[in-house]
Amino acid sequence: MTQKAYTQGSTFPPTKPDVLRIYSMRFCPYSHRARLVLNHKKIPFEVVNINLKSKPDWYLAINPLGTVPALQIDDKVITDSVAAAEWLDDVYTESRLQPSDPYRRALDRVLLEYISKFYGSFRDALKSTDPTTLQTNIEETKKHLQFYEEKLKARGEGPFFGGSKPCMFDLLFWPMVERFPVLAVMKESPTANIDADKFPTFTAWVQAMKELPELKATGFDTDSYVAFFRGYLKETPDYNLFLKE
């Protein structure tokens, strides 16, 4: 099966009985979430990448929203990155990621909801063309990072939000953090860099996360994200970037 993105007019790749499939896009942070969970739990799966600018009709029949990720196994289809991740954790019970304590799970849900503020200000900064607006957006993003710095420090349990081991929130947050360094490169703004002295707990978390096998099996380096985002900002994203097949 090709890694290249299926586009309008393409033929639907037939599913196989009992084989879990993820509909994805290689550079999408939300798809990245699901792939992290799949790799963490060592779940066998196949990937079908989707061209989000020219979606196949057969994909819209599977997921009318046209978003990724979506999981499919036999007649079951799960859309939305959080729903997909939680479903995987509930069905494949090895290496559980969700906290067993209901209160802790609720606290992690609050952290999860706050990601939209962090990633929203990051995207605003990435799209900024005015230097003053850019700096305002960078400062706003740093404010949201400070929120996570304080929450992680308050837990005081280990390098991860889950303590000595990563929890679901760690994996759901990471894709947005992995993309953050593109800001300093694309905007040529040193102020976008994360100062380890100001964010020591968050910086330690980043370093611990980078050592996880599931992270090494997914995602890209900063230069690769920069290359993708340059096309994305021009509304000409190359979903097949770096693929030769």
UniProtKB/TrEMBL annotation:
GO terms for cellular component: cytoplasm. Keywords: Oxidoreductase, Transferase. It comes from the Eukaryota. SUPFAM superfamilies: GST C-terminal domain-like, Thioredoxin-like. Residues 101-228 form the GST C-terminal domain. Pfam families: GST_C_3, GST_N_2. This is Glutathione S-transferase omega. It comes from Elysia marginata.
